[in-house]
Design goal:
Order of helices and strands: HEHHHHHHHEHHHHHHHHH
Largest sheet: 2 strands, parallel
Distance between the termini: 51 Å
Structural class: mainly alpha
CATH topology of the largest domain: Growth Hormone, Chain: A
Strand order of the largest sheet: 1-2
Radius of gyration: 23 Å
Oligomer: single chain
Number of strands: 2
CATH superfamily of the largest domain: MFS general substrate transporter like domains
């Protein structure tokens, strides 16, 4: 019996593939709850409730703004001794607040301001739940995944998240008809419950049975105030440069999100169904781009240490080129292979996104240990700011350029060109990430040694 307990408590160095898949279930659960609160509820507010589009836009922007607290939650999970509690606690809060957000549709029917106040509270807690759970999950992956497995692990986890979004959207669409607000609340509550149970089964015991991947050259420090940890990370050149990269690249990525389907409808005459299919073409490209990086990373990462950076730069360059072609397409519509162009954009987006996530997991384990949560929080906050600004900036830029020029095609061409330039800047920043890391590891390579040394 004693021997059985000893075997049960033995901590393996690093996560097995089965453990990584189980954590991917948690990411899928997060995606399945978020899709109902940011996509389905957005549509209901605009169509069924006849609210101005700015209302759901404000609420979605609020849940991104709240995630500026990700570094705080990451620091708390670093110090708390159990990331599992933060993962499940955040997911439970997300499920409850997501159901509350769906329930505000009933209040909006009675009184707009009552519904608005309730929705503001619900989306605030949605941001808390996503930030606390997602940051802790990524920190757990970063600290316990072997370096050679990180590209494939990042690919697997993110593809499972997208799968969770797709499966939930398909199943929910079947049960939502005939639509009623009460039916939406019921489906959201059931989805949140199922997601929490799946996540609990996925993460349970993973942290307890695995040990952190430690580099003997790195230091370990379990105690530090949040301010000390944040200052330490910001003074790390690699972490600082990567934070800037995350913000610029995600700003470019999100700006295209809300204008791609209107572009297809206004200039190529696509119906709603056809523009939705175009979005599916983009996601198919993202899937294949992620899969390509995951397979190549698992095969060659050990022999090519710079592979992730190469994919990050190539993905940003490819995204910029594809957006440049979309700018050209604006002047040649409808005689342009739009589907092929959008698929290529999705493939490049998938390559850069999953390579950047793999790099993020690698950099999170560098420097002083027990800081993975703060590092993931800083980068998550940068992404949240970029996502909130990007969606807003894209739509505003289209409206402003249309007002100034009176030319729809020209306005789209200008905005797509601006996004392409942002991706090119992102590629330039990405080339410096490895240089910063190397300079930090060997700051005194050419300095003379003191006698005591």
């Amino acid at each position: 019996m004693f021997q059985t307990r000893a075997l049960w408590s033995h901590r393996q160095p690093g996560l097995s593939w089965l453990a990584i898949i189980r954590l991917g279930l948690v990411q899928a659960a997060l995606g399945s709850v978020v899709v109902l609160t940011t996509s389905t509820l957005n549509r209901v507010m605009v169509v069924e409730l006849s609210l101005a589009a700015v209302v759901p836009g404000l609420l979605v922007g609020l849940h991104y703004a709240v995630q500026l607290g990700r570094p705080l939650w990451g620091h708390a999970s670093d110090k708390g001794g159990s990331r599992t509690r933060w993962i499940l606690g955040g997911l439970a809060l997300l499920a409850i607040s997501g159901t509350a957000a769906a329930a505000t549709t009933l209040l909006f029917e009675q009184n707009f301001w009552l519904g608005m106040v309730a929705a503001l509270v619900a989306f605030t807690f949605i941001g808390f739940g996503i930030g606390a759970s997602g940051t802790s999950l990524l920190a757990l992956l970063a600290s316990r995944t072997a370096p050679e497995r990180r590209p494939a692990a990042a690919t697997l986890v993110w593809m499972m998240m997208i799968a969770g979004i797709v499966v939930t959207a398909i199943i929910s669409s079947v049960f939502l008809d005939p639509y009623s607000h009460l039916r939406l609340v019921t489906i959201t509550a059931m989805s949140g419950t199922i997601a929490f149970v799946v996540a609990a089964l996925g993460v349970w015991g993973v942290e307890r049975r695995s040990a952190e991947i430690r580099d003997p050259r790195e230091t370990v420090a379990a105690t530090a105030t949040f301010r000390e940890a944040l200052v330490e990370i910001w003074h790390d050149p690699a972490a600082r440069i990567f934070t800037v990269f995350v913000f610029v690249s995600m700003l470019a990525y999100q700006t295209q999100d809300l204008i791609l389907e209107p572009f297809a409808g206004l200039l190529f005459g696509h119906t709603p169904g056809e523009s939705t299919a175009l979005g599916g073409m983009h996601h198919a490209g993202v899937f294949l781009g992620m899969a390509f990086v995951g397979i190549a990373g698992s095969l060659f990462a050990a022999r090519r240490p710079g592979l992730l950076k190469m994919f990050t730069v190539a993905g940003c360059l490819g995204s910029g080129i594809a957006l440049g072609f979309l700018a050209v397409a604006a002047g040649r519509a409808p005689a342009w292979p739009l589907e092929a162009n959008v698929f290529a954009l999705g493939f490049a987006n998938g390559v850069f996104a999953v390579a950047a996530i793999g790099t993020m997991m690698t950099l999170a384990g560098k420097g002083t240990k027990s800081r993975e949560g703060v590092r993931m929080g800083v980068w998550g906050a940068a992404q949240a700011i970029a996502f909130g600004l990007g969606g807003f900036a894209g739509t505003v830029a289209i409206d402003v350029t249309r007002w100034l020029t009176g030319d729809i095609a020209l306005s789209f061409a200008v905005v797509f060109t601006g996004e392409a330039l942002l991706f090119l800047v992102s590629a330039m920043i990405a080339t410096s990430i490895g240089v910063a890391t190397a300079s930090r590891r060997h700051p005194t390579r050419h300095a003379p040694l003191a006698p005591a040394e």
